Amino acid sequence: MQTRWKPSVTVAAVIERDGRFLLVEEETSEGLRLNNPAGHLEPRESPQQACAREVLEETAHDFRPTALVGVYLARLERPSGDDITYLRMAFCGQLGERDPLRRLDEGIVGTVWLTPQEVRASASRHRSPLVLRCVEDYLAGVRHPLEVLHTDDSVWRRP
Question: 59-70: string of b/e by CB count within 10 Å (b at 16+)?
Fold first, then answer.
């Protein structure tokens, strides 16, 4: 029997304030990389909830998604031999207060605010090509209402 292919489902936040974008610096097997605040969808949460959780864990900021920027599919072949396909849902929204006492997720070194030009210039340090693509789509005004995503109540039921 053939194994079913399953992409890794991730969420990301495109956060802009005063012309700068909030990115995280994170330790990876390829060294220090830049990424949108992002991570994997976990059991019993909607994509919007996952995005808010990931932003809090990686930046110590509250975040409320207000629109879907896009849905992206990308395959990454790592030098380690890993071959992973990611299905990413990227959101924009309202950034809340930062909790100065909250520790950042393991592997997150810190956060940086970059201009669009700085994001473009740092592409060789991006965790994936989706970092820049999400920012470019945001800058182009791409926004979809959150209503295009539906999370059925069955997601929250315990097995």
Answer: bbbebebebbbb
Distances (CA, A) of 143 to 26, 131, 152: 27, 16, 22
8-144: in CATH 3.40.50.2300: no
| Whether this model's pTM surpasses 0.90 | yes
- Over residues 11-33, the pLDDT tens digits come to 999 999 999 999 999 999 889 99
Nearest to 111 by CA among 158, 47, 60: 60
| DSSP helix, strand, coil percent of the chain (3-state; round to 5) | 25, 40, 35
| Residue 146 burial (C-beta neighbours within 10 Å; 0-12, 13-18, 19+) | middle
With residue 50 as reference, give the H or E element that holds it.
helix 47-59
Closest CA to 62 of 111, 97, 20, 15: 97
